[in-house]
Specification:
The chain has 97 residues and is of the alpha+beta class. It has one domain. It has 3 helices and 4 strands, in the order ααββββα. The protein has a two-stranded antiparallel sheet with strand order 1-2. The protein has a two-stranded antiparallel sheet with strand order 3-4. The chain is globular and about 40 Å long.
Length: 97
């Protein structure tokens, strides 16, 4: 495959909507909590069948606007930090940060 986008699109074209991939990040600084909050929001709202738009840096020159199909197959099964799977309660506690 030439790009990750081509790889993922080929998988979708073949009807493999339920195929899972594991994505990992290495994050430093205060961004750790912010990233986990965003992932938790997508996980929770997508799991209840709610479709929504994700807009990052709406006032910037390089805005990202994408969708999350909560009524379809978009799901985050679990979120782990350093190999430890965070419970829904642990993730929700981040909202107090």
């Amino acid at each position: 495959m030439d790009t990750i986008s081509a790889y993922l699109n080929e998988s979708l074209d073949m009807g493999k909507y339920d195929d899972e991939i594991e994505v990992s990040f290495k994050v430093k600084g205060d961004g750790k909590i912010s990233l986990l909050k965003m992932l938790r929001f997508c996980q929770y709202n997508g799991d209840i069948g709610h479709s929504f738009s994700i807009v990052l840096d709406p006032d910037g020159d390089d805005t990202l606007n994408t969708g999350w199909d909560g009524d379809g197959s978009d799901r985050i099964d679990d979120i782990k930090v350093d190999g430890y799977k965070l419970s829904r309660e642990e993730l929700k506690s981040l909202d107090k940060e």
